[in-house]
What we know:
Layout: H1 6-27, H2 33-48, E1 53-57, H3 60-75, E2 87-89, H4 94-103, H5 111-117, E3 123-128, H6 134-145, E4 149-154, E5 167-170, H7 176-199
Amino acid sequence: MLDKNGPARSRRKEAYTAGYFKALAQLIPQLPYAAIDTIVEVLLEAFLEERTVFVFGNGGSAASASHMMVDMNKGTAKADTARRMKVIALTDNVPLLTAWANDVSYEHVFSEQLKNFLQENDVAFAISASGNSANVLAALRMARGRRALTVGLAGHEGGKMKALCNACAVVPSDNVQMIEDMHHAILHSIFTVLRERLHSTEPFAAASIGTRK
């Protein structure tokens, strides 16, 4: 028998999904565009100085870090150019992650990796919906001790990581899923702008980053 309530139930479900996207759309005008532009300049300066970008995060943010690494390394590359961006996702070496977590603590799975590679003026790029992940904060503190540049994406009010970043783009929401949606969109916007600027035939130079602490 046909469910007489079927059409009404379907409309209710559509209203739920449409409501999510409506709320998501309302976040877009509130995004911190100046901070995002500053992150673009930091990454462009890293390219010009042949520095390395190290990106990291937990859970969904770990997936975003890995995705960003692919976009920045492959997506910005041109076959006929020798110089390319150098981006490493600290989320991708599972044996190394588990070794540090097991033998030291999960709090240091990123900071211990950075100790092997991080140089002055490299970039530590943190992604955290809460802005308070202990291993993210440890990595940012370690990076600042090495005089690296620190940038990040956060949600809520930025958490503790906001104060540890030279530039931090904070999505003004308490909804973790929407924060992660916006983080992914922000990363794609950063990638798109970098690709356009790196592929431009006009000479360019990164703006002076006045946010070094």
